[in-house]
């Protein structure tokens, strides 16, 4: 059974940093496609960052240079390091995984394994 679970969301002041963690079980995260998504109230879920099984990494334009996605194979854990946080980064952040090696990594519809979400709130 493939399972992923996020943690690390918190209330943080603008300009601060936060690291989100996605723990995996039933799957080796380094062998599959992984993504971070977020959703603000009343808005569509949007891609933040993803890492394809081939190790190609993609970031949304709004987070380039501020966020870093990475996988620790020894711990079977996915991370999202978020620096220089802005109020616009506020939302529920989700971790997602896809075992099948097809397509890209950007669209939420391409994933079939999701965590429960973790709340990130950035105050000004």
Description of the molecule:
The chain has strands spanning 3-7, 11-13, 18-25, 33-39, 46-51, 57-59, 67-72, 77-82, 91-98, 113-114, 118-123. The protein is built from no helices and eleven strands.
Helical fraction:
under 10%
Low-confidence stretches: none
Overall pLDDT level: 96
> Order of helices and strands, N to C?
EEEEEEEEEEE
**End-to-end distance, in Å?**
41 Å
List how many beta strands DSSP finds: 11
Q: Count of helices?
A: 0
Strand content: over 45%
Shape category: globular
Blueprint of the fold:
Elements: E1 3-7, E2 11-13, E3 18-25, E4 33-39, E5 46-51, E6 57-59, E7 67-72, E8 77-82, E9 91-98, E10 113-114, E11 118-123
Parallel strand pairs: 2-11
Antiparallel strand pairs: 1-3, 3-8, 4-5, 4-9, 5-6, 7-8, 9-10, 9-11
In short, what is this structure?
The protein is mainly β.
List keywords for this structure.
0% helix; four-stranded antiparallel beta sheet; mainly beta; 124 residues; 48% strand; globular
